[in-house]
Amino acid sequence: MEGGGGGxxxxxxxxxAKAGGAFDLGRFLQQPQVLARIASAIFALIVFACLVxxxxxxxxxxxxxxxxxxxxxxxxRYGIGIGILAFLACIFFFMVxxxxxxxxxxxxxxxxxxxxxxxxxxxxxLWFIGFCFLTNQWTWTQAKEVPVGADSARAAITFSFFxxxxxxxxxxxxxxxxxxGVEDFAHSYVDPTPEVPTPYSSYPNISHDSYxxxxxxxxxxxxxxxxxxxxx
Length: 232
Fold this sequence. Notes:
Blueprint: H1 25-29, H2 32-54, E1 56-57, E2 66-67, H3 73-99, H4 106-139, H5 150-188
Antiparallel strand pairs: 1-2
Helix pairs in contact: 2-3, 2-5, 3-4, 4-5
């Protein structure tokens, strides 16, 4: 596998086949993250459609529309907002899943997997908040104030609850792909063995026993007897 900034072939990196392989639709649709993403898109579309179609109603005596969740406009807006954004995100990451094996740069693969992991984590949290918010507002809603749309409200709550688990599965699959990429890098990276330094050796052909006296040096011989000083 290539290094972080390499643009070479990242064969099998981050849970995908080698770049340049043929696309197999049947095998692609059998991938767990693809199935979870399709389910998440369907759930988001149902929540969005229920709130847009019958999330607003009016009393027989008035023509003014109001949100069926306890007249709380924020509840309908929140459900519609996270629903449409989740659906669009599913389409985007679905296209990423299609082209992911064609991406040869392992750095690009890493960033896409991290984006999938981060977005899935965020939307799992937002769906949990949405489920709690819609459920709370529905419990305070008077049945007589909702002549039409009660079933759509319950469907929106139900599929908000299902979305928590479908996006939770996407977290697990994205984390698994990221972990596979990190392990592949760890296995393919070989740390070069450091060379063992050799001990210092003395200069060759030098022997301490064969020391010779430097030339042009003479040792004074000890005088054998008295010698008179010279006479000038």
